[in-house]
Backbone:
């Protein structure tokens, strides 16, 4: 009987955006939030599922959860429509993160692993000036 949870010490979680490869740190106003993960390990029993959630990012890792834990089955990606974020819509200047836990065949959960966060740019850039000539 496996009495140890999956090992998350080598796991990696990154924020994604459709049409891009790799980690995304800034993106436009989304219709969905998404992330990918890899390298959760378990020597005692197979990993059967992954749970993921979206939260406000803090350096301490204790930011408010915007979703409950969502069961992704054995998939290594997760996506949720923005409207599923407890009624919250991503705001400019706030960094959000994806958190993931692995669940083994014994039903034990790993420690959560968080992405480095993504900031949504929901407003256009400020206007500027163009100087043409010496005036």
Residues:
């Amino acid at each position: 009987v496996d009495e140890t949870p999956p090992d998350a010490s080598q796991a990696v979680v990154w924020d994604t955006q459709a049409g891009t490869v790799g980690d995304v740190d800034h993106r436009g106003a989304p219709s969905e939030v998404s992330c990918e993960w890899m390298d959760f390990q378990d020597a005692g029993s197979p990993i059967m599922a992954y749970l993921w959630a979206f939260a406000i990012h803090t350096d301490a890792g204790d930011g408010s959860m915007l979703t409950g834990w969502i069961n992704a089955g054995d998939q290594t990606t997760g996506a949720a429509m923005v409207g599923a974020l407890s009624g919250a819509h991503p705001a400019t200047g706030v960094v959000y993160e994806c958190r993931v836990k692995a669940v083994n065949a014994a039903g034990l959960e790993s420690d959560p692993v968080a992405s480095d966060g993504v900031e949504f740019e929901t407003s256009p850039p400020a206007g500027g000036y163009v100087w043409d000539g010496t005036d």
Q: What stands out?
A: The radius of gyration is 18 Å. Residues 46 and 104 are 6 Å apart (CA to CA).
